[in-house]
Amino acid sequence: MMNGKLNAGEVNITLSGESFTLRPTMRAHNVLSRPPYSGLAKVRQMLMDENIDGFVAVIAAGINPSMSAKDTEKLRERIWDNGVNWDLARPLMKYIAILNNGGRDLPPEIDAIFDDDMTTVNEVPSHQQHGRIEDYSEGNG
User: Fold this and answer.
1) Is 43 within the bounds of a domain?
2) Does 55 map to a domain?
3) Which of 4, 12, 30, 106 could disulfide-link to 111, CB 3.0 to 4.6 Å?
4) 4 within domain boundaries
5) What residues contact residue 77 under an 8 Å CB cut-off, 6+ apart?
């Protein structure tokens, strides 16, 4: 799974061979912060739980926060075909961290964590850095 730097804060993912760019926007942040998700911490937990609804929510918010129900269902099928796994969750977790950082790129020491083969959210530093990165080890966001 590739997750490359494009424009500031953008994350690139690949689903079944097709590349998608997740753009960090206030609208994407708002979609994930409101019901039914009610916050980025809850969405992060959905990713950790490998809950496909969390994967769909994050990717849809990053691609098109106004995605139609038909396109959302196509996205769900593409995610299923790809596999609901940590290789996909990792760049989505990075995208959520970028949303928490106001859509800006992460500081290098935080960004590097998402490029490592991290296996638990507890490996993300639990202290605030550069004023805006939240405490990921406790699920606060």
Assistant:
1) yes
2) yes
3) 106
4) no
5) none
